[in-house]
Design goal:
Blueprint (H helix, E strand, L loop, with lengths): L1 E4 L7 E2 H7 L8 E3 L6 H4 L8 H13 L5 H11 L5 E4 L4 E5 L9 H18 L5 E6 L4 H9 L5 E7 L19 E6 L3 H13 L1 H7 L1 E2 L6 H4 L2 H16 L3 E7 L4 H11 L6 E6 L5 H5 L25 H10 L1 H7 E5 L2 H15 L5 H16 L4 E7 L7 H8 L20 E3 L3 H10 L3
Helix pairs in contact: 3-4, 3-10, 4-5, 5-6, 10-11, 13-14, 15-16, 15-17
The protein binds pyridoxal-5'-phosphate (PLP).
The site of pyridoxal-5'-phosphate has 15 residues, from helix 11.
């Protein structure tokens, strides 16, 4: 697979370069310049196909020309020790649970695949070592540490914003012969992201250490997320019986959403995608063909979607530039407020005995809105992106149900001290990293 920049100012690069460099030199983001047609796999798989089987079938065709078939199989085999789960609720709705990974959110899928690909890429390229620098918000530090644990040649630098930090085990730190370097900055999450871009653009430093990032700016985070869309399609296709297939995706940075569009480009038959947003919905304007004007982020009960300027903005725009009419006929924006989110959580509990987290509830509410209002004869798959137990207090408020964090997510609560606390400046970050190599 080849990649180009969203700004189209550089020649195409091979997959390995896009993954290892992360950001193109022209300031854009990497996007696939052509995609593999996967219909031969998609249309032949059925409801008996397991997730590992699906990953093993599509990975080699995705990485063809970049990794040899043997390495591709190893990537698929060693990436996931957890799976999505599709639950069909009734004729109208299914729910795709994506929160069975180590940190209880869908992002575990992209991160896990990224770790696996990177290890194989390092084996096949000259680079013997890679430093992955990622902004850590909420619980993804744990997810990243899990994905890179014991992978050869990889060091993972996690940059935390100010505030309490939790989730990591000091045994994993580089000072204790692990491969993780947690650094906290005196600044916010935007500062973390800015520092990563600056670090990648400091080419002497970046090339000396082979710096890349596992944040959603890296295209390798998004491609594997297409797998679970394909998986969901394969599971429901027999049940559709002429109904249209719609996905409802709770969206903040629109990484998950873009991955759905990739699945469509790979050849998955689908009729529409709902871009489900909370009150931070400025992006809906762009989808409706109006001018996108970012607003100050509002605080809602679905905090992972409290985003004013989606990190994948340029990737989305490039879809609209390529085929504006197709996109407008296939993408339906919806904004859901907190009250409706909570009501939907209650409704899902009463109707389906399903406890869902507020992010997933935004997607469910948006799906109900769209399907109730129209004449569409459709089946909608709701992406359940977060484990309900992680938002236990909101779940209790909405449904009266008490829900406990499962054993395997208890690690998320472990408090730790970062290796360094620094000002949010590039030179401070570079010195803190360099100190760890002495
Ligand atoms: C990150 C996240 C989202 C939003 O996903 P994007 O790819 O940023 O649009 C939704 N729900 C949960 C639980 C998340 O953690």
């Amino acid at each position: 697979m080849k990649f180009r920049s969203t700004r189209s100012l550089i020649p195409e690069v091979p997959f390995a370069e896009a993954v290892l460099r992360c950001l193109p030199p022209d300031g854009g983001l990497y996007v696939p310049s052509s995609v593999s047609d996967m219909r031969q796999f998609i249309l032949h798989m059925d409801e008996k196909t397991t997730y590992p089987e699906l990953a093993a079938a599509v990975t080699p065709s995705l990485l063809q020309g970049d990794l040899n078939p043997l390495s591709s199989s190893r990537v698929a085999e060693s990436a996931f020790d957890f799976e999505p789960e599709l639950v069909t609720l009734d004729e109208d709705f299914s729910m795709l649970k994506l929160y069975n990974g180590p940190s209880g959110i869908f992002k575990d899928f992209g991160v896990a695949f990224f770790g696996s690909v990177l290890e194989e890429l390092l084996k096949e390229t000259e680079a013997a070592h890679s430093m992955i620098v990622s902004a850590a918000r909420g619980d993804n530090g744990l997810s990243l540490t899990g994905a890179f644990r014991e992978r050869k040649g990889i060091t993972s630098v996690l940059i935390y914003p100010s505030g309490p930090v939790s989730g990591l085990d000091p045994k994993e730190f580089i000072t204790n012969s692990g491969n993780t370097i947690p650094i906290q900055i005196r600044g916010n999450f935007d500062d973390c992201n800015r520092l990563i871009t600056e670090l990648i653009n400091d080419r002497p430093f970046a090339e000396r250490h082979n710096v890349t990032s596992a944040n959603t700016i890296n295209p390798c985070r998004l491609l594997p997320q297409a797998f679970y869309f394909l998986f969901a399609f394969v599971k429901v296709k027999k049940l559709l019986k002429g109904r249209e297939l719609i996905f409802s995706v709770p969206s903040g940075n629109f990484g998950n959403f873009i991955s759905g569009l990739y699945a469509w480009k790979f050849g998955m038959p689908v009729n529409g995608f709902i871009a489900a947003m909370n009150l931070n919905d400025a992006f809906g304007d762009l989808i409706r063909g109006e001018k996108f004007e970012p607003q100050q982020a509002k605080v809602t009960c679905s905090p992972a979607m409290d985003i004013s300027f989606p990190a994948n903005y340029e990737r989305l725009v490039s879809f609209y530039d390529e085929a504006p009419a197709v996109m407008r006929n296939m993408v339906f924006p919806a904004a859901i407020d907190d009250e409706e989110t909570l009501r939907t959580m209650e409704w899902a509990w009463k109707n389906y005995n399903a406890l869902i987290d507020p992010h997933s509830a935004v997607a469910f509410a948006a799906a109900r809105k769209l399907t109730e209002s129209g004449s569409r004869h459709s089946h909608t798959i709701i992406l359940a992106t977060g484990h309900p137990a992680k938002e236990a207090e909101i779940v209790r408020r909405a449904t009266g149900q008490l829900i406990k964090l499962p054993e395997k997510l208890l690690n998320l609560k472990r408090k730790f001290n970062p290796i360094a606390l620094i000002d949010p400046h590039l030179d401070a970050l570079e010195s803190a990293i360099s100190l760890c190599y002495k």
